[in-house]
Specification:
By secondary structure, the protein is mainly alpha-helical. The chain has a domain of 90 residues: Multidrug-efflux Transporter Regulator, Chain: A, Domain 2, CATH 1.10.1660.10. The protein has twelve helices and six strands. A hairpin with a 2-residue loop joins β5 and β6. The longest helix is centred in the last third of the chain and has 36 residues.
Length: 248
């Protein structure tokens, strides 16, 4: 187990010594181990410090963080303490849902909005019905469909693509999270729950899953776009580029 002086601990967690002392004063961070006159921190302190910073970044107050950590150490599960949505990362999305009327959808997609395409969008979860309005949980996905329609792709085809895209991202996300489950959690046994000094570490593990998935998928899509766009367009892309140069 690694050992840290307070300045080393702060540096490893990306914070300041002053903040470490503040968290200790508020009973969020356990006191260090005393080795004579030296105060020594361990990996459990580092994991908890990262968890505290993670919660602060997400808008939790000190009192809320302490209440959650105390409840978890008293034996509650992570889902009980943070809420299942927060535990899975769904509450950490930076994209607020959009509320839309039928008129809004008509302005976005024109005559492509039909009972059939609406049913498909609802079935896929691209839209959700809320009374007389609709909610788009991911406005970015809806905007991508709008851009495809503006380019001339039929909305029904864009929705078929969305179905494949959602299925593939679900599959890849499950693979990635499954690796963490298999190699980090499964070895602990089916009935295991973290306790004591393990709590901050495994909370930190779970808190990292959502940004990890986002980062991996974003990097993979960027790499794929750079390679596939020229491959698919081929000679057309070259001809367009040459014509553009000639016109300038």
């Amino acid at each position: 187990m690694a050992e840290y002086r307070i300045d080393d601990l702060a540096r490893a967690a990306g914070t300041s010594v002053r903040n470490v002392r503040v968290y200790q004063d508020r009973d969020l961070l356990p006191p260090p181990i005393r080795r004579g006159r030296a105060a020594v921190y361990g990996d459990a302190h580092l994991s908890r410090l990262r968890l505290i910073r993670n919660m602060l970044d997400r808008g939790y107050a000190f009192a809320q963080i302490k209440e959650m950590l105390d409840a978890w150490q008293a034996g509650h599960s992570l889902a009980d303490v943070l809420g299942l949505e927060a535990a899975t990362g769904a509450a950490w999305s930076h994209e607020p849902p959009a509320v839309l009327s039928v008129a809004d959808l008509a302005r976005m997609f024109g005559a492509e909005v039909t009972p059939a395409t609406l049913r498909t969008a609802l079935r896929l979860g691209v839209l959700e019905r809320r009374g007389g309005r609709f909610v788009a949980p991911s406005p970015g996905l809806l905007e991508a469909g709008r851009e495809l329609v503006r380019l001339g792709v039929p909305l029904a085809e864009a929705l078929a693509l969305a179905a494949e895209l959602l299925a593939e991202t679900d599959r890849v996300t499950a693979l990635l999270v499954g690796l963490v489950h298999r190699y980090v959690l499964d070895p602990k046994g089916p009935d295991w729950l973290p306790a004591g000094d393990e709590l901050p570490h495994y909370a930190d593990v779970i808190s990292r899953l959502h940004p990890l998935v986002m980062s991996a998928l974003s990097a993979a899509v960027d790499r794929s776009a750079r390679r596939v766009i020229p491959e698919v367009l081929g000679d057309r892309l070259i001809a367009l580029a040459e014509r553009a140069r000639a016109g300038s």
